[in-house]
Amino acid sequence: MYSLFIVLHVFISILLILVVLMQSGKGGGVAGAFGGGGNQTVFGGRGATDFLGKATWGLGAGFMFTSLLLGILAANRSEPSSVIQKTDAPPPMTAPAVPSQQAPVTPAEQTPAAPPAESSAPAEEAPSGN
After folding, report:
1. CA–CA separation, 28 vs 38, rounded Å?
2. 37, 24 in Cβ contact below 8 A?
């Protein structure tokens, strides 16, 4: 159902774009500012509304209706709406369990640490103060 309304919304959007682009301009644009569109009045009557004007109003109302409907349907969906919510969270970190059967290690039983390895790089000499 949700997918059907998305397809309908996209279809109405494309039709609305096409209908708006097919309409002729009302004022002449920049030419009207320099005296080119003198026969049209700024606040005068436009005459009867043509088919493209009525189609624009109808498609605009349909676009608003499907937008509101999709918003309501998206809010009521049970699927997570966020990418973060869709990912599986890793399990919480816990300390490893210590086996209770193991005897404690005494200091005498511990192996001594290996002596630090000597560097084979020559030592730098301090600059003389001459």
Report:
1. 9
2. no
Predicted confidence at residue 46, as pLDDT, reads: 59
pTM of the full structure:
0.48
- Cα 5 to chain centroid, rounded: 21
Residues in the chain: 130
Please, what are the averages of pLDDT over each run of 10 residues along the chain (130 residues)?
92 94 69 53 61 92 96 80 63 71 64 62 62
Contact 22, 52 (CB under 8 A): yes
Rounded-to-integer distance, Cα 92 and Cα 126, Å: 53
Q: What is the dihedral of CA 30, 36, 39, 44, to 10 degrees?
A: 20
